[in-house]
């Protein structure tokens, strides 16, 4: 008799545990819960992506500046001033009096150089 009562108690306990866990599983996979999980995942991915992009931009900018400094140092002759520190010289002679056609062409070239960020 005690054995039967023990096994009935075990069966009731297992049934209660299975029902409670089953309800949790069902609630977890309802459309609302799935939508909430997807939204949370999207927010997490967005946050991680923004952090990655910001870190990448900072590290890339620092590496680019360091490499540019290395290249400028390697290309400059000993004692030569940095190109950014040099003032442009005024033009003299035949280039200064080239006329309006030459001045217009030079102005267009300067505009292109300013837009491109380099000159020859």
Automatic annotation (TrEMBL):
<feature type="region of interest" description="Disordered">
    <location>
        <begin position="79"/>
        <end position="120"/>
    </location>
</feature>
<protein>
    <recommendedName>
        <fullName>Secreted protein</fullName>
    </recommendedName>
</protein>
<feature type="compositionally biased region" description="Low complexity">
    <location>
        <begin position="96"/>
        <end position="108"/>
    </location>
</feature>
<feature type="compositionally biased region" description="Basic and acidic residues">
    <location>
        <begin position="81"/>
        <end position="90"/>
    </location>
</feature>
């Amino acid at each position: 008799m005690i054995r039967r009562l023990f096994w009935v108690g075990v069966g009731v306990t297992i049934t209660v545990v299975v029902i409670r866990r089953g309800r949790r599983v069902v609630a977890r996979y309802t459309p609302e819960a799935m939508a909430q999980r997807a939204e949370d995942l999207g927010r997490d991915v967005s946050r991680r992506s923004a952090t990655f992009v910001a870190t990448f931009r900072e590290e890339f900018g620092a590496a680019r500046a360091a490499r540019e400094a290395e290249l400028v140092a390697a290309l400059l002759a000993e004692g030569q001033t940095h190109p950014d520190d040099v003032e442009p010289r005024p033009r003299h002679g035949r280039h200064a009096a080239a006329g309006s056609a030459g001045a217009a062409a030079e102005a267009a070239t300067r505009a292109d150089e300013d837009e491109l960020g380099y000159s020859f």
